[in-house]
Design brief:
This protein is α/β, with parallel strands linked by helices. It has a single domain, classed as Rossmann fold (3-Layer(aba) Sandwich). 38% of the residues lie in helices and 21% in strands. The chain contains 13 helices and 14 strands. Strands 3-2-1-7-8-10-12 form a seven-stranded parallel sheet, with helices on both faces. A hairpin with a 2-residue loop joins strand 13 and strand 14. Helix 1 runs parallel beside helix 3 and helix 8 runs parallel beside helix 10. The longest helix has 15 residues. The chain is globular, with a radius of gyration of 19 Å.
Length: 324
């Protein structure tokens, strides 16, 4: 019998938590990773080489790899701020950039690196071109660039993507649509709603594939609201935004953490973008999704509130068992 196929879509530091826990399970994993990041090291590299940003791909590669910790530390090494043109760049970003140039595309680079680092599963950039994220706010103001969105004071109404270096319609990377259509489960998140998850779904081919797939589309709802993105959002608001952008009630299942984050626990200096715990609106959720699963998915670590990947994956596998 074939393994269940799970495709995880997102970016940032969210989906690596799920991928790391999925790696040890008897499932066929695919990761589809955002290419709209234009800040920090990724932004500098994408602008210099006009390539897809490497940072989110780097984090996913490490999460799905069985490489020894020493190799991981080397790949994640970040040059010191006194290192001139290299200042702040993780070594892994430069390696991905170099191999992308050598192989002719980031897609081919990730296939080579996946073999090199013995990854469990497949990794695809959501598009083979760098994308620019546009946010239109409720007051009509438009902000261009993922890294600039949180700086504008207002509520986001919608987002969309364009190709950064040509006028063509953004298209999905090869194998991406096929992976979505052939999956048994699609997992969205966890991660920044407007800047890590939606940039992938706003590629029309990916949005359409999510509507057509027979897979269970599961959203792992964020634990904390995020400054400049989801301030004052309930869990139902997160799902409403996803369905609105996709043009239909595409989300089948929502995973919601109901374990409280202890008061004063969050380190507001280290995690200053995260504000308060997401409020629950179960009536709103039930109107937006077929199934709502609320449980303790919380992991407290180093002054931050994160998803416990093992607990989330345990629930995902239960959903698959029910479907089969």
């Amino acid at each position: 019998m074939r393994k269940p196929r799970i495709t995880v879509i997102g970016g940032g530091t969210g989906i690596p938590v799920i991928l790391k826990s999925l790696r040890d399970k008897d499932v066929d994993i695919t990761a589809i990773v955002t290419v709209a990041d234009d800040g920090g090291s990724s932004g500098e590299i994408r602008h210099a080489l006009q390539m897809t940003p490497p940072g989110d791909l780097r984090n996913v590669l490490l999460a799905m790899s069985d490489m020894p910790k020493l190799y991981e530390r080397i790949f994640q090494y970040r040059f010191a701020e006194t290192d001139g043109a290299l200042a702040g760049h993780p070594l892994g970003n430069l390696i991905i950039a170099g191999i992308s140039e050598m192989q002719g595309s980031t897609y081919h680079a990730m296939q080579l690196l996946s073999k090199f680092f013995h990854t469990t599963g497949k990794i695809y950039p959501s598009s083979e071109n760098a994308l620019t994220l546009h946010a239109v706010f409720t007051d009509g103001h438009e902000v261009v660039g993922e890294s600039k969105i949180a700086g504008y004071k207002g509520m986001i109404d919608r987002v969309f993507v364009t190709n950064s270096y040509n006028q063509d319609e953004p298209t999905a990377s090869r194998k991406v649509v096929e992976s979505i259509l052939e999956s048994d489960m699609i997992v969205l998140g966890p991660g920044s709603l407007f800047t890590s998850i939606l940039p992938n779904l706003m590629i029309s081919e990916i949005g359409q594939a999510l509507k057509e797939t027979k897979a269970d589309v599961t959203y792992v709802c964020n634990i904390m609201t995020q400054r400049g993105e989801t301030e004052f959002f309930s869990d139902a608001d997160h799902v409403r935004v996803l369905n609105k952008h996709l043009g239909d009630n595409v989300i089948d299942t929502v995973l919601v953490n109901i374990e409280p984050v202890p008061k004063e626990y969050m380190n507001t200096y280290q995690f200053d973008e995260y504000l308060v715990q997401v409020k629950h609106d179960f009536t709103g959720l039930q109107a937006q999704a077929q199934r709502v699963i609320s449980s303790d998915f919380l992991r407290l670590e180093n002054g931050g509130a994160f998803h416990d990947g093992d607990l989330v994956v345990e629930e995902l596998l239960k959903i698959l068992q029910v479907k089969s």
